[in-house]
Amino acid sequence: MPAPFQCTNALLQYHSTNSWSNLGRGTRPASSVLFSLNSGEIPMHQGPDRSRYRPRDALLLLALWFATPAWSSQASIDQTTTKLDLRSDSTWLLDEQADQSAEAMFERVDAGSFQPLPAHGPTFGFHDGAFWLHNSVLNRSGSDQRWLLVLSYALIDSVDLYLRYPDGRIEHFVSGDTLTFAARSVSYRHPNFWIDIANGEDVDILLRAQSRSSIQLPLAIYSPGAFAEMAHNAQLGLGIYYGILLGLLLYNLILWLALRDANHLWYVLHLAGVGLLGACIFGLAFEWFWPESPWLANQSVPIAIALAQLAMHQFARRFLDLRTIWPLGDRIAKGFLLLYAALAIISLALPYSTAVLIGTALVFPGVLFILIEGFYATRHGYRAARLFLLSWSVLLLGSAVYAMVSLGVLPKTLLTEYGIQIGSTLEMFGLSFALAYRYVSLRSENERIIHSANEQLERRVAERTGELQSALEQLADANARLRQLNRHDPLTGAYNRSHVSESYERMLRHVQHDRLHLGVLILDVDHFKAINDSHGHLAGDDCLRETAKRIQSTLNDERSVVARFSGEEFVILSPCAGWDEARNVAEQLRQQFAANPITCQGTSMTISVSIGVHLIDPLAPEPLHRVLTLADRALSAAKAAGRNAVVCSNAVT
Questions:
Q1: Which of 111, 129, 563, 623 suits 488 as a labelling partner, its CA being 20 to 30 A distant?
Q2: Tell me: the pLDDT tens digits for 350-362?
């Protein structure tokens, strides 16, 4: 029996006998004392002079009240009890060496060595020792009952439950995630034990817990019906949570497959990491994924922490476009990625407690840096970063709260225990809106860029069209000049021999249409070599230029073609009515040269020309080379006749 109860019993005995000499003679259990007082078996006052003891009675009752500490209270079950939260009635003791037996601890309980729980409840952080919790439960329901004791924290390695009954019998049960999931009394994600408590029976509950992760020991006992209702509600809540998570995961996976936007892929991996981490923390992974592998149930926790953090940082890095807006922050984020990737790998080899402690501790700098990223992007005008910052703040706050619960900084309550689930649910919706907002913003920006690009393109096309039009005009002029150069003799400006070939067929069609003939004249400057020899080649060039001008001015007919054929010879194609007109044209040319001198290099000289004439009937056209041959024969005849003469081909035999 604890020492405080002995003190209380002694005070009651003194009160009943009104004598200090009886103090400490014999004691009874506190429960029987209280029961006797309530039933009236021991009167409050004895002797005839009751009034003289009333002030003292009041003082003794106050002393009795304050002498019984809160941590010695007893939990009781009545007919209306369906759930009993044991946290307010629990006392605890730390076994630093984890080597104490249950018998030794029951003795410590009886000696009053156990202490009341800390202000933040049964949350003790990371510790290598064994933690012992004690509760006393009295069944006053009027019937024998079976209850389920539930330890509402999944990540406990070893849990030993000792039940001490009034007859001295001690029962021992074991659980925890170092055993297979099938070792649990009820197939439920949290460790649990069946407890049988007979009516009127006072049972001492002594629980020993040891774990390489955070120590959290919230105990409660449930009736079978209350447990079924609690489990149903918990499963419903988790089902809604994971339904939302799975829906958003599949939705963003489809978006990634359709859009190939890596942000959606990393968001999918982030959702998967958060979901796996939650499943590990709340015992769902052990229950559903690897119930036969306690090792994997433990090692999956630090791995899930690392993978969730890795996906979280990579998504933030990509979503906020740190490479562009903050290169230094992008390099720091890559450092975090390497750190979490290394943690995920070495967690397979590190001791579980070390890996979990490192992973939990790394949550804080990770949370801080992602918040810094969000603030930085927001300050630099990235609008989608506002929704990102709001969404991540909620999740990161929930994650940080849970980490502080694991480290024993905060008490374990509904909000702190389910901080990750609450925060991640709000974050999932927020980030979905952020991704949608980012997509709309990017689409609007792309449309603006495309519209601006189209306007610039239209302006550039107009400019280029103008430039091209100008270039085409210049090219046309150049081509015209080139054609002019290609068709004209560079010395005299008259057409060249190739133009005669090009014009011949065209002029035949014209004279055929006009019912005319085509006269072909070959004109040769007489004694041209003598001019070159006597006056020089420059004078000879002037002579040729003046000859071309004299021919063109004499003909004065746009239909005629005057071409320098070779050397001092010129070919003339001129429409005419017949032989007489062709001969008259040639004679007119000869007379012009004979009667009018030309000036060459400042020297006036009179030259003569010889002309051969051929007439083409358009109804019986001849090839150009044949025509030129006949005209050339006539020219030769004119030269043979003494030069300065005109000879027609029809007169040459």
A1: 623
A2: 888 788 888 888 8
The CA angle 189-192-197, to the nearest 5 degrees, is 155
Domains in the chain: how many in total?
4
Q: How far from 375 is each of 105, 379, 380, CA to CA, in Å?
A: 53, 6, 9
CA within 13 Å, CB half, 464: 6
Q: Which two tokens stand for residue 345?
A: 């790998």
pTM of the predicted model as reported, rounded to 2 decimal places: 0.56
Single-letter amino acid code for the residue at 430: G
Q: Which residues lie closer than 8 Å to 627 by C-beta, 6 or more apart? A: 504, 520, 614, 616
Measured between alpha carbons, how far is residue 216 from residues 234, 279, 290 in Å? 19, 17, 23
Express each pLDDT in 213-270 by its tens digit: 888 899 999 999 999 999 998 888 889 889 988 988 998 898 889 888 888 898 889 8
Residue numbers of the domain that contains 145: 75-222
Same domain, 155 and 247: no
Tokens 């927020």 locate to: 430
Q: Quick check: is 461 in a domain?
A: no
Residues whose CB falls within 8 Å of the CB of residue 5, separated by 6 or more in sequence, listed in order: 29, 30, 68, 72
